[in-house]
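Structure representation.

___
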Amino acid sequence: MYKAELQCHPAIPTQVVHGVAVQVGWGNGGALALTFALTGDLARLRIPAPQPPRRADSLWQHTCFEAFLRHKGEPAYCEFNFAPSGEWAAYAFRHYRDGVSLAQDLDPRITVRRTRDRLELDAIIRLECLPPALSRARVQLALSAVVEDEQGVLSYWALTHPPGRPDFHHPDAFALELEWTEADLVSDSVEEEKW
């Protein structure tokens, strides 16, 4: 299980969000298991209302959590967006920002928990949904979040930020390496650990 604190992009600070943390591991059957935890004044954030689970584009224009995966040393990568509404999106890229939508049958399992000052989102991505190059191999991940405040201002959170404007697709953003054979297996319901 890997745990990390995401960093807010320094050019767009926010006083409303206190932090965004993430934990990642492998679930039953090798499914990728992600838990994002946002803390702050949720009453002052725009958090999408629950919707029926479905694929939707442009989720990054509002509060959402993101994971980018690539095979180590390869330019091709996948992007996954998970909204607190339960909506999701997935894209495959041949190289930097050159991509198309992934299959509709991806259907990640998304669970959302919310309190007054904490929002948690679990996402489970089945291994068979990943491109063959990412299956059971060493992968590099870029983990990120976009958070919208009550004024419609977006803050950008990531493991690391390359120089310049926020860019989660940048090759330097893939700061985490994880190998399936080395990973700690977690249950299909991501651990309810408070961290």
Notes: The chain has no helices and twelve strands.
